[in-house]
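Quiz preparation item.
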């Protein structure tokens, strides 16, 4: 077995990415403070053709050297918008026909392993502050909560790790490319 070289990976250019069909998923960051987490979410969103990333509240926006360090340029390929209030992002998404889920441990949440996706649906997932999680008012405005099963001693995962797991599951459930 031989590792592939970068030029053998046949990756899209930024222009090709902009024109490509996207996964009907918007990732919303609700007051995420770590610039490395923001950059990592951009990078994962690029990898799985996520439609857009919405940056809300205290979440920093590109251009920023610390975001770029983790994003490796994905902040240029993935569309993004900034909202001062996360509730405004949720309202816009709902008006555009998206089903909006907060990624949060909550009463009545759906385990990610039990999530049933409509292949014709449009979705948004909200990831919250590294300590406080998704704001309660944002959880209240969501169509539901998705929870990741965890079995160890810690009660949460890093935001960018959670984003990677959730984005992958939506890609598996919605993208025709996942059968490659």
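Solution:
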């Amino acid at each position: 077995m031989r590792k592939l070289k970068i030029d053998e990976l046949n990756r899209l250019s930024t222009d090709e990415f902009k024109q490509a069909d996207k996964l009907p998923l918007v990732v919303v960051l609700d007051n995420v403070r770590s610039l490395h987490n923001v950059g990592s979410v951009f990078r994962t969103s690029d990898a799985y053709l996520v439609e857009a990333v919405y940056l809300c509240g205290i979440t920093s926006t590109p251009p920023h050297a610390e975001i770029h360090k983790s994003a490796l340029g994905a902040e240029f390929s993935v569309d993004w918008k900034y909202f001062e209030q996360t509730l405004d992002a949720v309202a816009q998404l709902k008006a555009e026909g998206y089903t909006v889920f907060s990624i949060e441990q909550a009463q009545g949440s759906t385990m990610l392993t039990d999530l049933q996706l409509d292949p014709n649906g449009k979705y948004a997932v909200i990831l919250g502050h590294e300590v406080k999680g998704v704001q309660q008012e944002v959880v209240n405005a969501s169509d539901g909560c998705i929870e990741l099963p965890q079995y160890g001693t810690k009660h949460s995962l890093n935001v960018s790790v959670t984003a990677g797991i959730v984005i992958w599951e939506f890609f598996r459930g919605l993208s025709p490319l996942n059968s490659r």
